[in-house]
Each structure stands twice: as structure tokens, then as C-alpha cells.
Amino acid sequence: MTQLTRLRDEMRQRGLDALWVSRPANVRYLTGFTSPADGKVLVTQDRATLYTDARYTVQAAEESALPQFIARPPATYEHASADVGRGVVGFEADHLTVAGLEELEAAWPDATLKAAPGLVEELRSCKDDREIEAIRAAQALADRVYAEVRPMIRAGVREADIALEIEQRLRRAGATNAFDVIVASGPRGAMPHGTASDRVMQDGELVTIDMGACLNGYNSDMTRTVAIGTPTDEMRRVYGAVLEAEEAAVQAVKPGARAADLDALARGILERHGLAEAFAHSLGHGVGLMVHEAPGLRGTSEDVLKPGMLVTIEPGAYLPGVGGVRIEDLVLVTEDGYEVLSQAVKETV
Ligand SMILES: CSCC[C@H](N)C(=O)N[C@@H](C)C(=O)N[C@@H](C)C(=O)O
């Protein structure tokens, strides 16, 4: 079943005659258009139109099989009003701004606008073979770059220089950073999102490296924590606890597993090591056209894993003033279990 066919089924079930798609990742997913921030899609039961402007006339025609209408608002809305009519039109309430909604209300006065968050995101959460191969390639590149840069992580080197090496190598390979590279050494390791700073790394420290490649629109995401020399006994104990939680959660990945249960499994292990308070974020998230997407692997999640989902498993422990550890793998949910896509070495510290 194509993506549009599945989307139309969902729309029927929710009583929608049309869906106005504004989130860039969703526009790209439905159209293949690689400048989706400047595109929108109107999907009805018998038509789907890509709207973009004249900067992209040639590009949109090359990239998308959907019919295109090249204009800017208000001409965009005037064209779409023929399909919208008096129907019920869903909008992406978790993306469209209040101003954007007001524009639609003014342009389509006869339509009923209805909040319809998460429709395309739900479809995107299970990847098809082409998407899985794209993410596999992004992760393989990230693994290669990590292996090349790992020997440069040593005392006397700035965090920023490690991030720069990673970014340069990704760019030379035709990719970009999926997000700003996190290089958090020593006490900075207590910041889960400690992007690389001017700090000079020192002997006896742990260093957290969190990096991803964005290749052909698809992202990877992986974290390793490494030691320079010999860290303190306390930090080695924390590393062991996080690794135990990470491995246990990865091994529990399978179709039917509840995301909240996986989060609880990892959290329970860290709690037994006295680190419950130190695990300051969720266990993981889906990865695809966005770095963070469905499913959410957190305590409040109602998501259940299905084959084709690609998720991170990334417990961490963060001790303010002392340091931190995170270990993250990118994991594919298969028909009967899981496959770990991230292959970068996890070291004994
Ligand atoms: C700014 S993108 C950072 C990507 C990083 N690998 C990552 O996912 N970090 C997690 C700690 C994170 O941000 N988790 C989210 C889903 C959360 O717990 O809310």
C-alpha cells in the first residue's frame, strides 16, 4: 500500500475530506520534494497537490511525482479552495502556527477546519525497506567517521576540534550533521546536550560523543562515552550501570513491546545502582526524516513497537559537578526481535 493510500484510509477513519500538510518532514515523506520547508501538500481522497513557489519550479518537477501548483499565498489557498470546498479539512495542529491557521480560516470560509495532529507521523513511524536502507547508510557513515575520529579524543584537545573533525568528514561524504555534535568532557558530561565547547579535554575524564549523519534526508543517532586515561572509580561504576541498562533495554526490543515498559526496564536497573535521579530524560525515540520522531520511548508513552520502527535506546546518568555517561544505539525492530544498526565500538572504561 502506498503512503498516500494509507493516509487516505486514516483520513476516512477520522472523518476528514482533506488534509493540509505543513510539517516539512511530512511534506517530504509524501512528495519526495527536498526543500519541504517551502512546500505544503493538500491531500483529498482523489487528489494530492504539492504547493511550492517559483524558486522550485524545476526542482519540484524533477523530484516529485505529484501534480504541482507553483504560487505563493494567497494564490496557493485560492487554488486549493476548489478541492477544499465545504469539506472537513484536517490541519497539523502540532505544527501549524496560530497565524497559519487564521490564514486558512480566512481563505476557506466554507470549510470546517479540524485539528488532525500526528496522522503522517504515525505512518512515518514504520519505515519501508527503502527508508531502512537510507538510515542504515547514514548510520554506517556515522560509524566510519566515529572510528576515524576516536583516536583524536585525548588530553590536550578541545571538544570543538572533535566536533569539527566529525562535521568535516560527514560533509566530505555528502552528508551533514543530523544535529550539533555533542562532545561533553569531564564535568560537562553532566549536561545531556552539552554541545562541543572550547574546553580542553583532560586525562582521567569521560567524554560523551553524541552524533548523527543526515544523508539523503534520513538521519542516524548514536552516543558513545569514552575514557581518556583512567577515570575515577565512581565514574567507572556509573559507566557500568548505564551499559547494563542499555544492553538490557536493547535486548528487550521486539514487536509488541510497550515503549513505557522498555523505559521502565532501563530506569529500574539504574535505580538499583542508585542512579534513578541521574537519568534525566527518556529512554529513546524514533529516528527517520527527523532526529526525534514517533515512537517515543518514555514512561508516559502509549506506543507499542512494530516491525519497521527505528528507535534509539539511550539511557544516561548525569551527576552535576562530576560528569556523565550516555550510551546510545540505533535499533531496528524486526519481525521477530531487533537488529542494532550502530556498530561503533563500546569501550570498557
Ligand atoms: C538535539 S537532537 C539530540 C539528539 C540526541 N542524540 C538525543 O536524542 N538526546 C536525547 C537525550 C533526547 O533529546 N531525548 C528526548 C527524546 C527526550 O528525552 O525528551
Automatic annotation (TrEMBL):
Indicate what this protein is called per its UniProt record.
Xaa-Pro aminopeptidase/Xaa-Pro dipeptidase
**Species of the source:** Deinococcus enclensis
Q: Which residues form the Creatinase N-terminal domain?
A: 4-126
Molecular function in Gene Ontology: aminopeptidase activity; proline dipeptidase activity
Q: Lineage of this protein's species?
A: Bacteria, Thermotogati, Deinococcota, Deinococci, Deinococcales
Q: Does the keyword Protease apply?
A: yes
Q: Which UniProt keywords apply?
A: Aminopeptidase, Dipeptidase, Hydrolase, Metal-binding, Protease
Q: Where is the signal peptide?
A: none
- Ranges where the Peptidase M24 domain occurs: 133-335
UniProt key word Secreted:
no
Stated EC number for the protein is 3.4.11.9, 3.4.13.9
